[in-house]
Structures are given as structure tokens and as C-alpha cells.
Amino acid sequence: MDVFLNEIEKNAENTLADGGGSSTPDANDRANFIHEKSLTATAVELFLAGTDTAATVLRWALLYMMTLPEIQAKVQQELDSVVGRSRMPKWADRLILPYTEAVLLEIQRIRTVLPLGAPHVAAKDTKIGDYDVPKGSIIVSNLWAVHNDPDIWTEPDQFRPERFLDEDGKLRHREEFIPFSAGHRVCLGENLAKMEIFIFFTYILHTFTIKNPYNKPYSLKGISGVTFGPIDVEIVAENRD
Ligand code: HEM
């Protein structure tokens, strides 16, 4: 926002120096975009795109931990042995918490909160696999289909963090894992989202055990809205100390 405000100021100075009119096409483009209204719109967009998405991943994460107590216990064991009980986890710890990371990746695979990427337009005639894609075509990536393709993921409807681990228990890169979309233009908030999800998830499981109160019925089916999220369910967060 600071950079943007500085640009608005610079723009105003340039316009004054210009005698009030921006002469070059470049300067016109800047004047059309760099003003307070677009700054507000950009900030609002970041909140809209960045809040529900990461929060929905966390809601799925809590629901899955409630339904899979053995997996939750394994995450807590890893946190206890690597981070310990005397401090809270931090972002740098992800490198030495492969099981916890694999659980988070599996949650984002099995419950892809944005099942479809944003619509893109082909800038020129091109080919994708065997398909001719003429210039101007609208292309939407089906992230859900990739994350649930049985040719890529054995029994994709099963929750298996081990898909993201190699035989030494180290995190394994899977190029077919694309929750932030495919191609050059992907989610702008990817790194921030990864940090948020990791920190909230590890803080919560470091401090609490997630349980189902009174064995209430729950569903893992989910519901489509702005994002694909879990149906509201009551959980209990029991203090671990
Ligand atoms: C787990 C959390 C998130 C997921 C799964 C996610 C996923 C996505 C996906 C699939 C797209 C469409 C990309 C495309 O096909 O062009 C996208 C775009 C975008 N995301 Fe995220 N996102 C997340 C968090 C965030 C956060 C935290 C922010 C901002 C702080 C953010 C800001 C944006 C913006 C601005 C775009 C549009 C980018 C563009 O068109 O250039 N996202 N996101």
C-alpha cells in the first residue's frame, strides 16, 4: 500500500509537471490505474481472495483431524518430538516436520477448496495435448479433476498423507498437486496462504486435541459456495496440557 501511495503521489507530480495532461500512452495507462479507488479495490480483492480460501482449508483440516484421530496423534507426536512442548511451532520448522506437511498437502488435495481455477484467455493459437486451442478461447483448469484422478493418485478418495512422502519419510514433491492453479499465472497469495495454514494448524494441534463432542454425526461431503467448504459441524478443542 505504501508503494502504491508513493506511485499516486509521483503520478500527481508528473501530471502537474506535464501542465495537467499526460501525453504518452504509458503515462495515460498509469493515470488510469494508479489512483486511490484502485488501491482500495486491490486491497479489498486481497481480503476477498485471501480470507475464505485459507480459512476453509483450516476448517477441512480440523474436520479431518476430528475424524482421523490416529493421524492427528501422529502429527502431535511429530510436533512434540521436533518442536517440543516448551515453545510454539514456527514457519522454519516445516522443513523438519514432513509428516505434518504431508497431512496438510493431503487435506488440500482431497478437499480442493477452489475446484476450478480462474478463467484465462488464450493469447494466441496453441495446443494443449491433442487439443487445438484457438486464440481467444476461455480456459478453466479443473483442479479437482487433477487432484482426484485415479491414474495419478491410487484410491483418490482415501486420506493418505504418505502420498507426499518418500520411502525415507521425507517430503516428496508431486507436480500434480496444484491447489493454487496451473501455468504461469497462479494464485498471488500462495506463499502467504502456505504460511497461514501451517502456523494456524500447528499452533492448534500443538495446544489442543480436536474431538467430536458426544459422537455427533458429521459429513465429509462439503458444500459449494465461493469456496468448497465443510458443512458446519460442532467440534471440541481439548487442551493438551
Ligand atoms: C489456501 C488458500 C488459497 C488457495 C487454495 C488459493 C487458490 C487460488 C486459485 C486456484 C487462484 C486462481 C489462479 C488462476 O487460475 O489464475 C487464485 C487466484 C488468486 N488468489 Fe489465491 N488462493 C489462496 C489464498 C490466497 C491468499 C491468502 C491471497 C491473498 C492474500 C490470494 C490472492 C489471490 C489473488 C489476488 C488471485 C488472482 C491472481 C491473478 O489473477 O493474477 N489467494 N487463488
Low-confidence stretches: none
Query: Which ions and ligands are bound to the chains?
Result: protoporphyrin IX containing FE
CATH superfamily: Cytochrome P450
> In the CATH scheme, what's the topology name?
Cytochrome p450
What's the β-strand tally?
Answer: 8
Main pleated-sheet profile: 2 strands, antiparallel
The helix content is 40-55%
Structural class: mainly alpha
Order of helices and strands: HHHHHEEEEHHEEEE
Number of helices: 7
Provide a concise account of the structure shown.
This protein has 241 residues and is mainly alpha-helical.
Characteristic key phrases:
single chain; mainly alpha; Cytochrome p450; 8 strands; 44% helix; two-stranded antiparallel sheet; 7 helices; binds protoporphyrin IX containing FE; 241 residues
Give a structural overview.
The protein is built from seven helices and eight strands. With 241 residues, the chain is mostly helical. It has a single domain, classed as Cytochrome P450 (Cytochrome p450), CATH 1.10.630.10. It has a two-stranded antiparallel ribbon with strand order 1-4. Strand 2 and strand 3 form a beta hairpin. Helix 3 packs parallel to helix 7. The chain starts with a helix and ends with a strand. The structure holds protoporphyrin IX containing FE (HEM). Protoporphyrin IX containing FE (HEM) binds next to helix 3 and helix 7.
